[in-house]
Amino acid sequence: MHLIAKHQEEEKRMQAHYLSWKSQNKFIKECGKLVVREVIREIKKSIYFTIITNSTPDSSQSEHITFVFRFLHFNDNQLWEVKERFLKLEELEKKKGSDITKLILNVLEENELDIKNCRGQGYDNGANMAGIYNGVQALIRQNNPQTIFIPCSAHSLNLCAVHAIESSAPAKSYFGNIQKLYNLFSSSPVRWKILQEETGQSLHKLSDTRWSSMIESVKPIAKKPREMI
What we know:
Elements: H1 2-9, H2 21-46, E1 49-57, E2 63-74, E3 80-91, H3 97-110, E4 118-123, H4 127-130, H5 136-143, E5 148-151, H6 153-166, H7 169-186, H8 189-199, H9 215-223, H10 225-228
Parallel strand pairs: 1-4, 4-5
Antiparallel strand pairs: 1-2, 2-3
């Protein structure tokens, strides 16, 4: 990139177009390094930070974990503002609390961020993350007792909805019937085609992890209940 800039300054004609996928990947990689460097600079300038992580499987069923940092930034208007910056994505081969803790500490170390400056940690309510003995939050606090654990509000709300619905027999029966209806049509391409031709709708499988996503399973039936039945 520096070589390109030099030639452009000297107004020399360049024959290389850098359109190959290898060249583009190199440019993207170098741009990524600059972005990460700037994020690290902002975090270090702020001194104190909160680390937020969450993991999810991708389409190949490989588990990946994200690293996001929240910190205070003194902007150009001489005002303090809360910033959140995505730092990196790592493959997560093991999901035990001790393994994730080690990964977090490694990310901090390789970016020269001191765990002693960490003031908060935000994770979901899983036992491996929120456990009071072997969860990540407990193990991180062994390294720095000042890192306050803040459970994810969205996950907490999701758990409230799950427990509320499980305490209602009619509600459990309702969603159970939706799943049976999905199983009936999805198990046969012929029936699925008839469903789409007659209703113009597609059924969706119930989600086991996100309560809020169940709304997508309810919508088709709510729109055309008679046609579905």
